[in-house]
Structure to design on (335 residues):
């Protein structure tokens, strides 16, 4: 592609690089990106212009819109029902979610696509970002007015299928809360969890409250009707052999993992009771603020299996904003 000033009379068929506010002919569009035809040239001449800055595509170049459209075809094929994309305009295509869930981004593929030519760019949400309908997931932008077709094809091959959406796989959830002697059950935890599961398209079923004892909690877990089981204890779970994990095992289930490298949210455990995932929530889940439990919960609800490596990887970026009501906030020895 060639770029620079040319005599106005030689600019037919070129792409106008900068908007030109004509004084003489107000009804002729001379905005940037316009492909100049005879009416544009006449307006420029009538306005007294002698030169104009343009871009001229060379052999083998694709116009910015054609390039963006081709990349969008690779990134979001038409059969990707969970995503929609806009038409290409000024070298840009935006991609939006059409459902709730979490997005899966192949970061290596996106990096390779962005490495082909600096004029070819795609920006996305983080891997595992939570989605709602009409949230923007990605934007493709061709920076220049045209790029070599070969580069576009290479970038398209890298980014093919690099965005996927994991949708919720369960319909309902149950919350079992415990209280230690003398403790009063509050509503904050239930309200916060209800908000979290509802934004994933699920319902939180009836109220289950029991003493903070292994047998009582185990029976409540067996009786709970939800597809996913959440436990919120009156006393924090401090070990994999504490009351709540022990109750899961006593109910006939198993505990896969205790503790996550996200703060707030460290004191979380994951387990299974039959076909039902079990999530032992940390106390910070009573707050609607983002915490590590959100990351685990959203992935589990969307059917994504979490192993020890997945949980370990949460540490980078896992230092989250402190919750003001936290009983023991983190701080230095100096305060």
């Amino acid at each position: 592609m060639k770029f620079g000033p040319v005599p106005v009379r030689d600019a037919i068929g070129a792409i106008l690089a900068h908007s030109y506010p004509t004084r003489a002919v107000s009804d002729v569009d001379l905005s940037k990106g316009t492909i100049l035809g005879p009416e544009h040239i006449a307006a420029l001449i009538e306005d007294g212009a002698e030169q104009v800055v343009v871009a001229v595509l060379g052999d083998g170049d694709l116009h910015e819109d054609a390039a963006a459209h081709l990349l969008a075809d690779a990134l979001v094929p038409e059969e990707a029902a969970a995503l929609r994309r806009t038409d290409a305009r000024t070298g840009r295509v935006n991609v939006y979610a059409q459902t709730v869930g979490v997005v899966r981004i192949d970061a290596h593929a996106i990096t390779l696509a962005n490495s082909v030519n600096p004029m070819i760019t795609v920006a996305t949400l983080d891997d595992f970002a939570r989605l709602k309908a009409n949230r923007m997931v990605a934007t493709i932008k061709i920076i220049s007015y045209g790029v070599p077709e070969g580069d576009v094809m290479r970038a398209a091959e890298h980014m093919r299928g690099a965005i996927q959406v994991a949708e919720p796989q369960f319909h309902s959830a149950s919350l079992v809360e415990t209280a230690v002697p003398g403790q009063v059950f509050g509503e904050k935890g239930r309200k916060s969890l209800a908000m979290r599961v509802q934004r994933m398209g699920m319902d939180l079923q009836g109220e289950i409250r029991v003493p903070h004892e292994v047998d009582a909690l185990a029976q409540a877990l067996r009786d709970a009707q939800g597809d996913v089981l959440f436990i919120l204890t009156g006393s924090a779970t401090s070990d994999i052999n504490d009351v709540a994990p022990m109750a899961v095992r006593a109910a006939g289930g198993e505990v896969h993992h205790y503790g996550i490298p996200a703060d707030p949210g460290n004191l979380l455990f994951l387990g299974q009771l039959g076909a039902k995932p079990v999530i032992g929530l940390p106390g910070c889940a009573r707050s609607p603020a983002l915490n590590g439990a959100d990351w685990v919960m959203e992935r589990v609800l969307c059917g994504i299996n979490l192993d020890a490596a997945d949980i370990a990887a949460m540490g980078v970026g896992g230092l989250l904003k402190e919750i003001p009501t936290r009983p023991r906030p983190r701080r230095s020895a100096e305060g």
Q: What stands out?
A: The first helix runs from residue 38 to 46. The chain has a mean pLDDT of 94. The chain has nine helices and 18 strands. The CA atoms of residues 6 and 51 lie 5 Å apart.
